[in-house]
Structures are given as structure tokens and as C-alpha cells.
Amino acid sequence: MDMKTVSTIDALRVDGDRLWRSLMDLGAIGATQKGGVCRLALTDLDKQGRDLVSAWAIQQGMTVTVDQIGNIFMRRAGRNNDLPPVMTGSHIDTQPTGGKFDGNYGVLSGLEVIRTLNQHNIQTEAPIEVAVWTNEEGSRFVPVMMGSGVFCGAFTLEHAYAAKDTEGKTVKDELARIGYIGDQISGDHPIGAYYEAHIEQGPVLENADTVIGVVPAVLGLAWYDCVVTGFESHAGPTPMAIRRDALQVATYIMQEVVAIALRYPPYGRGTVGSVQVMPNSRNVIPGQVTFSIDLRNVSDATLDSMNAELDAYIDKLRADTGLGITLQRVSYFPPCAFHPDCVSQVRNAANMLGYATMDVVSGAGHDAIYTARVAPSGMIFVPCKDGVSHNEIEDAKPEHLEAGANVLLHAMLASAVVVS
Amino acid sequence: MDMKTVSTIDALRVDGDRLWRSLMDLGAIGATQKGGVCRLALTDLDKQGRDLVSAWAIQQGMTVTVDQIGNIFMRRAGRNNDLPPVMTGSHIDTQPTGGKFDGNYGVLSGLEVIRTLNQHNIQTEAPIEVAVWTNEEGSRFVPVMMGSGVFCGAFTLEHAYAAKDTEGKTVKDELARIGYIGDQISGDHPIGAYYEAHIEQGPVLENADTVIGVVPAVLGLAWYDCVVTGFESHAGPTPMAIRRDALQVATYIMQEVVAIALRYPPYGRGTVGSVQVMPNSRNVIPGQVTFSIDLRNVSDATLDSMNAELDAYIDKLRADTGLGITLQRVSYFPPCAFHPDCVSQVRNAANMLGYATMDVVSGAGHDAIYTARVAPSGMIFVPCKDGVSHNEIEDAKPEHLEAGANVLLHAMLASAVVVS
Questions:
Q1: Measured between beta carbons, which residues in chain A are less than 8 angstroms from residue B144?
Q2: CB atoms < 10 A from the CB of B377, how many?
Q3: To the nearest whole angstrom, how far is the Cα of A290 from the nearest Cα of chain B?
Q4: DSSP label at residue B192
Q5: Do residue B202 and residue A238 have CB atoms under 8 angstroms apart?
Q6: How far is residue B240's CA from residue B230's CA, in Å, rounded to a whole number?
Q7: Whole-model pTM?
Q8: Blockwise average pLDDT, block size 10, chain B, 420 residues
């Protein structure tokens, strides 16, 4: 092996065509008519996908191990194998009508990093691993981000094992059935640094015509159910002045949700996604309206403030209108700030490579949220078409995927240290 | 027969207990567990109800005839039977979960007028008739107000005959089956004046603690479907500034519907009763929202103005937001002003009787809308509990029903002219 100069290392690039072919090959397993993928966690198709990716890793001389929750770790040795590995990864399970890139890109860009290192005979000080986390999507089994959640201690192995799909089949039985219940103890596996490449699943990069998103944080979220109770009455005989129209009152709250988010730029988000009107009849004034509220921001403090403004608004509206209004918080995921070192490595790598970058917070959850609890972690985003994900029409450009993998390569090399 | 003085006539009163007993007896046919009635048009139960009411009329010495659409006319002769009859009536079919009073009260208060006249040996110049109109509710067969609609030429007999229920049974076959397809030509039957007593089906009288509603008009209504099309995207990754949130835009239209109605007092009504959000998922910004709009007012001119304001608002909102907004008018029922003479007779009768009155427009349709096309018509409203109708819990007070029947009695006597 020749000693590599800095300029030789800086010139290293992944093979974008090879990465694209792997994405298409894996996407063929569970391919749908509309160009997407249906490969639910722990199904026969998931097993086929795991088998294929593991075989690719073995072809690259990697060691493949599996832990108790079915997470796969594909390891390339370093010079000092007592060091914790520099890890990348994501998931290969999909939504029922999912795409070819969500998750799969994170795993296969990791594999492409390995292939590139092997091709160029690069040795690193620390070992490098590519993780395939079990059941990130949560479509078949809840909780979501199950494999990384168990690995990082967010919940117990037993809790995850007991989760059932709609047919009553458990995670434990299904893991055993497809041959992916390993003996490695989940989490007994230190990580030096963790990077995850992912399509953005939002429109920010595409709108800004920017290739690389540096991800400083993942937004926390608070979910609420709001119920407005008025009085159901006929649209004709009931004069405006004496109506108790639950929908009209609800519309003011729906607008306030957006107004609150706009008062917390740049990361505040406020969404009403789901509405049920009772009795939902054309000529009946709604007696009750139930709707969801989704508030997000980058810190607990801002989320608390947004929550307080929502409470205050509803208290005033309740007093002003006399209608019944209840607000119940049904879910809370805390914000997650990524490690400054990992964020810097991503930014530096992109800058060295000459890619335009911008900071983009992640609005959706990823396995990196959980790895951030046990190791310095960071993410790399690339654009996806129209910001659409969790959809069969999810799409991304080969050159963007290649760019993201190059950033992943150089961020990982910076963490793992090239020795020859 | 003795000649009656004005004071003797003015002292005439119906028998409230007798009226209440008839309401309860008729309400027993199709009675529901919750105290309501299910007696759909042209069912066996409808036949039982028709038979009972007809038998009561024959007991009172009335002549009973049936026309081609099954309308029943129960006639008490006058001194001059060449005069067109002074008519009252309503319907005895009900909603699937209907009440004992809607419609039934109009027929049985008419019968109570006849019983009172017979009891006191009152002769009128013009004959008096009580009509039972076929299928007013429209629950089983569309169009609604079918019998009076055919009678008054709103649509053809053939159109009504061909209407089918959900099992494919036609009006014509079902009329024949229950023995109520008459040979009298529908509409070949002049009317001198028409009065209809009805529960208000709204909360105005009850809220004002007033016994008698004088009904100057029935509101016209325009129904619309509005569709707002934005772009469906994830609630987390999509910043506020670049959202195309169909629900947020829809809420502004929903509020404008109410604002428009408030700009057209006292009879303007604006209601959004039905909303469908797509995809209606907690963490997805709505891509499309479809909702109904119901505008009502007392004249074509005001309804046209309300329509124009809605159009203008939507045009501006479309330009301001760039979202797709379509507004389609799906139904229009023109307003109906009742005849000033009939309105005056109702008011005068109530004043003479010492009942508190107020003007209350009808927000719902009634057979009197169609009779108004062929004869001077008017209506009398009495309060119903909480304004609730089309519901098994529909309720009304015996003393209010009695008061309404007394007003009906004296309004009809003023039109029919007492001669002895």
C-alpha cells in the first residue's frame, strides 16, 4: 500500500453510477407499479433486502453481525480495531407506498463509501461500519425507529419484541422467522461518530437549488388533539347571532396555529393536518369539530413558548365564545441538536468538494436522533423531487445522491483518519 | 243553526287536549324507542297513518279524495261550494329518525279546526279542506315536497312517479301498493287560501319566549361546493414560508361565509356544514380541502349580492395565495314571500287571541312554498324545544301547539267567512 498524500485523499470520489445501480437493484425488491417500494419491516421482502445488502458487504470483505433487535452491522476493519467504529447507516424497510431512496440511500451510500475505500486501497485508523437499523418506518410495528431506539436505550428490547402487527404477529417471532434475531447484545457496541445521509423529505434544498443540506438539528414536536363543542342546529332556521358554530370557532384556532409558528422563525412549524366535523352535513351547523395540531421547533424552550401561546389563545377564545374547547397533548418528541464536530465535518467536506450547502433542520425523525444519545452524530441531506417522500413517486437525482455520498465519504474519513 | 255574533266567534277555541291525543295516537304508528317516529313515505306505516287520519276525517263528516300523486284532501262543505276551499295541511311522512310533530302537527291542527267547527255548529261560506301532502321529507324518495310540488306544477307527475328508493321501488308502484294512487288530477283543484301550522324547527321563538311566529317568508338558499387545492407535504420538513396549505386558505373562506351572512341582516345565513380534508393525516399539510357552503336570504337580490361577494372574495384569495380554488353552485331554491293577506290574517288572529307574536322567517322548506305558487299562502310557527327537529328528541309544549291551532282556526275563519 502506498502512503496517501492529502491531495490524493481530497481527490477521492465515490462512483455515482455504482451507487445508483445498487439503489435500483435494492429497489427491485418489493417494487410497486408506480415506481415505489413496499418492503415492510420483517417481511419476506425485508429479508431479501437484508440478504442482498449483507452479501454486497461480504463481497467487500466486511464482517457482518446482527444484534438482538435485528440491526445489521457491516464492518470494515481499521488499523486500530480497539477504537470505536466511525459508523454510518439508515434503514431499508419502507412505508407501504414508499420510495426507493428513503433509508435505502443512507445504507447504500455507506456501502459505496466502503467500495470506494477498497477500490483505492485506503486504510483508516478507526474501523468503519455501515448499520442497517430495524423497522425505522414503524408502518408495521410501533414504535418507529425501533432498532436504533433499542440500541440507544430509548426503550427496552422486551418492549420492542412484544410489538404486534395488525395480524397479531410479534417483532420477536418475525425476526426469528426471517433469520435476523442476532446474539449480539443491542447497544453493547460503542460508536466513535455517526453520520447518516438521507434525502431531505422536504422542499428546502430543491427550492434553493442547493445540493447539500448540513443538518444542525432535528425538530422536536408536540402533537395535540383539539375539540370544539358548540350546538348542532339547522342551517336555515337558526339566525347567525344565536349560533354556536363549532367549525367557525375551530377556524380561528387553526389560523392561530400557523400564526404562532410564524412568530418563531426560522424553525417554528404549525400544522393542522386532520379535521373531523360532526355531523358533517351540508345544511347542519357543526356541533363538534375535532382536529389535530402539530407544533415543531428546534428547542424545548421555543416549543414550550409556542405551547403557552396556544393555551392562552384557546383560553381567551373559550371565554369570548362560550363554546367548549379542549386541548390535549397526545405526543412529544424532544428536539435533537447534532454534535458540533459532526456538523462541522459535514460542512467542511462539502466545502472541500465545492458543493453549495445550506443549513436545513430535519423536520422528520431519523435513526440519527437516537444515535445522538450515545455518540457524536450528524446528518447529510440531499434534495428530493418536490420535497415528496413516503410516496411511490419519491424521486432524487443521481448527481445529488452521488454528491451526498462524496460528502459522507470525506466526513467519515475525517473522523476515521486515513493512515495509508 | 243559530246566527253567531262576532264576539261568539272570537271566543271560539280549539280543544288542546283533543289535539294532543291525536298527535300521540298518530305518533304511535312507527314510534321509536327514543320517543320519535319512523314513518317513511309510502311504507305500510305511512298507509296506516293515512288510514287513521282519513278515518278521523270521515268521522267528522268530511269528504275524502285522493289525487294521482297520493295527496289526500279532506273536505268540509261550505255554504257556497263553488268557492275554492280555504285549505290547511302538511304531511305525515317523517324522517328515518324523525319526531311526532314535524308535519303531523300541521295536519292534525287542521283536523282540530274541523272538530271545533263541528262541535260549535259553525258554517262557513267557503268550504274548508285539510290536505295531507305526499312525501314532504324526501328521505325515501327525491325530490322533497313531492306531493305539493306536483300539485303546484313545480315538476311533473311522471318525474315524481319514476323516483326510486334505494331498493329500486318506484313512487308509482309504492303508491299503488298502499292504495293511495287516486284518480283526481293533481293540481286540478283551485285553492282560495292556504295556511300551514308547523313547529319552528329553529330556536328563535323559544329564545324570545314567544308563542306564535308570524312567517313572512321562506328563505331561498344557494348551495356550493368549494375546493381548495394546495400541495400535500410533510408537516416537519416544510418551512412555513413555502407551504401551500389548502386548509389554511380554506379557513379564510369559511370565515368569509359567516362574515357575508352578517353583512345581510336580519335574514342572511351562511353555513359551512361539511368538510373533507385530504389526506387528513396528523403530520401532513393538507393538499386539498373540499367543503360545502350554504347561503340563505329572503330575496333573490340579497342572495345574488351574497353570491357576488363570495365570488369576489375567492377571486382575491386565489390571486393572493396562488392556490387553486373552485366554487361550484350545486343547488338553488328561490326565496318565497308569503301573501300579505295571509300573513296579516295570521297576525290578526294571534293579536285577537292575545298571544305574543314575532316575525320568524322559515329557514327550512315546507309544502306552503309550493302552494304559494298557486294560491295566497301563509304559515304559523310554534316553538319547539331547543329548536331541534328531524330528530327523535323533537319536542313541543301542548299549550304552544294549542295556541298555534287557535291561530289557524281564526285565520281560516277570517278567510272562509263565518255565515252561521
A1: none
A2: 29
A3: 12
A4: S
A5: yes
A6: 13
A7: 0.86
A8: 73 98 98 95 98 98 98 98 98 93 98 98 97 95 95 97 95 98 96 98 95 97 96 91 96 98 96 95 93 96 98 98 96 94 98 97 94 98 92 94 98 95
| Domains of chain A by start residue, with CATH | 6-218+335-416 (3.40.630.10), 220-333 (3.30.70.360)
If phi > 0 it is left, if psi is from -120 to 50 it is alpha, else beta; for residue B145 that is left
For residue B292, the chain A residues in CB contact (below 8 A) are: 282
Q: What type of residue is B35?
A: G
Beta bridge mates, B325: B228
**CA distance linking residue A322 with residue A169, whole number of Å:** 48
- B200–A contact, CB cutoff 8 A: yes
Among B residues 319-378, those touching chain A with beta carbons less than 8 Å apart:
362-364
| Ordered DSSP codes for A90-144 | E-----TTB-SSTTHHHHHHHHHHHHHHHHTT--BSS-EEEEE-S--S-SSSSSS
Distance CA B362, CA B200 (A): 7
B199 touches chain A (CB under 8 A): no
CB contact, 8 Å: B203 with chain A? yes
Using the CB atoms, write b or e for B15-46: b if 16+ within 10 Å.
Answer: ebebbbebbeebbebbbbeeebbbbbbbbebb
Of A202, A282, A294, the CB nearest to B237: A202
The string over B313-324, giving b where at least 16 C-beta atoms fall within 10 Å of a residue's C-beta and e elsewhere, is: bbeebbeebebe
Task: Check CB contact of A278 with chain B, cutoff 8 Å.
Answer: no
Q: What's the per-residue H, E or C state across A51-64?
A: HHHHHHHHHCCCEE
CA distance B285 to A257: 13
Q: Do A364 and B262 touch (CB under 8 A)?
A: no
**Confidence check on the interface: ipTM exceeds 0.95, yes or no:** no
Residue A398 phi, psi dihedral angles, 5° rounding? -50, -40
With a CB-CB cutoff of 8 Å, which residues 91-150 of chain A face chain B?
none
pLDDT tens per residue across span A278-320:
989 888 899 999 999 999 999 999 999 999 999 999 999 999 9
A 10 A CB-CB count for B105 gives 29
Q: Count residue pairs from A and B with Cβ separation < 8 A.
A: 181
- Verify whether the Cβ–Cβ distance A247 to B236 is below 8 Å: no
